[in-house]
């Protein structure tokens, strides 16, 4: 089995001027990075990063990539890009827009599956500072990212959050949600949510889920089957949220997820009378629930 390393990235989105990164982290502008040499699969690396309060690193400029590359020397390193849900539709695991690439010539070619590692040395004729594809079950080191979000003053208490939600979004504590009835595949729904500033929704408690269900019913007078942000296309059974948050709550139908047919990698809500969750093929068309924090 191919062995690879990982890097941790801590995104300090609201870091005040002069603030430094925690001990052991390296700062670049308003972001903090850490290299972790322990070798894991891509999905295991992402889960580890989430347990650290972060995600595998997203990269948004050549300058940022050069800085990250300086943090390690001889390892290939997982970063957060993956197209396991739908071939050629790349997402960052932290939910940010996939707006920068630095592919090795001839990549991505999908000859070795779906998630990229970056390379800083030329073993196996890999070019410095460019990305290649590796099998998602290969082992590699990691680069993690974590957002430190400082909310606007109006968002300091739950009762004031409604002032911070955009028009046509509904609030729930420190989050905003938007239901869109247009049927889309899961990847198209995620890209739609990103286009309006969010991601397909993650859900973290029973109270939150019941509230969301009630708001959708109020808007539609029905309980439409709807995509939310859960997926396990990178590694079967290792569920992740597309916004990069911790997968810490489920509402599965008894007997689910069952990955029937070997291709059920995305989550819909409002399945059957109890309006539970079900795993489905990601290419089916459903309504979308977006969220932003």
UniProtKB/TrEMBL annotation:
Keywords of the record: Disulfide bond, Signal
Q: Which Pfam families match?
A: Lectin_C
- InterPro entries (alphabetical): AntifreezeII (IPR002353), C-type_lectin-like (IPR001304), C-type_lectin-like/link_sf (IPR016186), C-type_lectin/snaclec_domain (IPR050111), C-type_lectin_CS (IPR018378), CTDL_fold (IPR016187)
Keyword check for Signal, yes or no. yes
* Domain of life where this protein originates: Eukaryota
Give start and end of each C-type lectin domain: 28-119, 172-291
Instruction: Give the signal peptide range.
Output: 1-18
Name of the protein: C-type lectin domain-containing protein
Q: Look up and give the organism this protein is from.
A: Coilia grayii
């Amino acid at each position: 089995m191919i062995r690879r390393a990982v890097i941790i990235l801590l995104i300090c989105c609201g870091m005040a001027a002069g603030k430094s990164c925690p001990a052991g982290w390296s700062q670049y502008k308003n972001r903090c990075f850490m290299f972790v040499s322990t070798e894991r699969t891509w999905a295991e690396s992402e889960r580890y990063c989430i347990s650290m309060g972060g995600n595998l690193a997203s990269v948004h400029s050549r300058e940022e990539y050069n800085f990250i590359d300086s943090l390690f020397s001889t390892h290939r390193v997982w970063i957060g890009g993956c197209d396991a849900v739908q071939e050629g539709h790349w997402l960052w695991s932290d939910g940010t827009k996939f707006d920068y690439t630095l592919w090795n010539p001839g990549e991505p070619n999908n000859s070795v599956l779906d998630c990229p590692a970056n390379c800083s040395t030329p073993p196996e004729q890999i070019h410095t500072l460019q990305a290649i594809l590796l099998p998602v079950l290969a082992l590699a080191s990691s680069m993690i990212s974590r957002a430190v979000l400082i909310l606007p003053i109006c968002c300091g208490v739950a009762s004031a959050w409604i002032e911070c939600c955009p028009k046509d979004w509904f609030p729930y504590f420190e989050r905003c949600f938007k239901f869109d009835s247009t049927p889309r595949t899961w990847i198209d729904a995620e890209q739609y949510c990103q286009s309006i500033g969010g991601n397909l929704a993650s859900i973290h408690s029973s109270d939150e889920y019941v509230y969301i269900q009630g708001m959708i019913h109020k808007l539609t007078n029905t309980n439409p089957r709807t995509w939310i942000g859960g997926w396990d296309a990178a590694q079967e059974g290792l569920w992740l949220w597309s916004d990069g948050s911790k997968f810490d709550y489920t509402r599965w139908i008894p007997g689910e997820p069952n990955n029937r047919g070997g291709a059920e990698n995305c989550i819909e809500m409002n399945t059957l009378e109890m309006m539970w969750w079900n795993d489905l093929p990601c290419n089916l068309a459903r309504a979308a629930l977006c969220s932003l924090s």
